[in-house]
Amino acid sequence: MRDQNFLLPDFKPEPYWWDHAPPTLLNSDEGEMPNRCDVVVVGSGYAGLHAAIVLARAGIDVVVMDAEVLGYGASSRNGGMVSGGVNVGKHIDLKPAQEQAMLAEASLSYRWFEDFIQTERIDADYQRTGRFVGAHCSDAWQLLVKRMVKLNEVADSSAYMVPAAQTRDEIGSDYYKGGMVLERSGAVHPGKLHLGVLNVARNAGVKLFGNVRAGAIARSKDGLRLETSRGPLIAEKIIVATNGYTGELSNWHQRRLVPIASYQLATEELGSELITQLFPKHRMIADTKRLLYYFRPSPDRKRLLFGGRARYLRHDPIAGVLLLRRKLTAVFPQLAEVKLSHGWWGYVAYLRGGVPDMGESQPETLPGVYHALGCHGSGVVMMSWLGYRTGLLVSGQTNSQSAFSEGGMTPFPLYLKKPWFLPAVGAYYQLRDWVDRQRDGDFSK
């Protein structure tokens, strides 16, 4: 098949980020796991680690466990694009007061995130590059105008609109009809970021265990009993911070969270000159489609990293990224012969309410179990922040309620374990995106 010729001979079906910061096992992983602690955190991503750091620094005995090596999930697989709330409630209608509160807190989370990286001296290739949100059709541009006003008024985003005629000031492509720039936005190397946060957690005294699978949670006379692949663990409180990788850990959480695979690719080295032609200001780029594309230069500005939806149920990194490559060349026809060095996928998590959620999961029937879930594809800052806020909540240090703890989590109808409906939903959204562009006289995909 000709598409296979677009894979480099040493193509890797794993994240590009792992070349520099692969998921790891720390020394404590090989030690004996305790059978009791104050708090156990399930999930070693950004949310779980930030919750654990807060707890450990408060003198609380905390264990973090992960079914895979530490950082195996979305925290080392994402696109590394960071902002202060641009995507909060993007495709849903929130009540004005709720939306304002969430945008204000999201803005605060970005400032906190930057301070954390600087204070803890984490080398994550952080760059405040700004972001360009491309309008996939004229109607989308008008919606971005309304969004820009809210982001500037509430989230201090330093946003402005780019007319269609000036699109090439932001991207070396004619695919978009102008868009919106957010100056208060940036980029990180997600693998290096995770490794940095992991080291902070270890130095704070968090006990870290990879390759330990968590199981059923039940209330016992001694506290909460968590079954694990290394035996039962008793804790006063449990935090579920598994996001798109929750799986069958908890039926209650699983019915309220849909994991959706997001695919990404890395091109061969293109050279800094071509990268600058494609990204004149080296910004992060996303768009307004329901099935959006998101892409960026690599931190060293030698490659292009491109992400989007590809496959929904039967995941295959090679088949998925070859499909994604066609979408890349629809945006950048000049890359028709580009080859790929890496291809991978990772789960993002969607909740029925359309926004992230944190808090005590079942206070009446299973008190002491908390969660920080639902990144909706924008988790670098938000899941870090919600983990931090959950740590404050569980340790009794919080002095205000988070705007993301007021919605609650409701189950999806007719959804038990397998998200059987995703291919149909994806096809419907793809059709609507195509119709939007057709109205503008653009028949490209």
CATH architecture: 3-Layer(bba) Sandwich
User: Biggest β-sheet: count, sense, barrel?
Assistant: 9 strands, mixed
Q: Tally the helices: what do you get?
A: 9
Order of helices and strands: EEHEEHEHEEEHEEEEHEHEEEHEEEHH
The number of distinct β-strands equals 19
CATH superfamily: FAD/NAD(P)-binding domain
> For the CA atoms, what is the radius of gyration?
21 Å
| N→C terminal distance | 22 Å
- Our count of domains comes out at 1
Uncertain segments of ≥5 residues (pLDDT<50)? Answer: none
Strand order of the largest sheet: 1-17-13-16-15-14-5-7-6
Q: Give the helix/strand class.
A: alpha/beta
Strand content: 15-25%
Given the C-alpha coordinates, what overall shape results? globular
The proportion of residues forming helix, as a percent range, comes to 25-40%
> Which whole number gives the mean pLDDT?
92
CATH topology: FAD/NAD(P)-binding domain
| CATH class wording | Alpha Beta
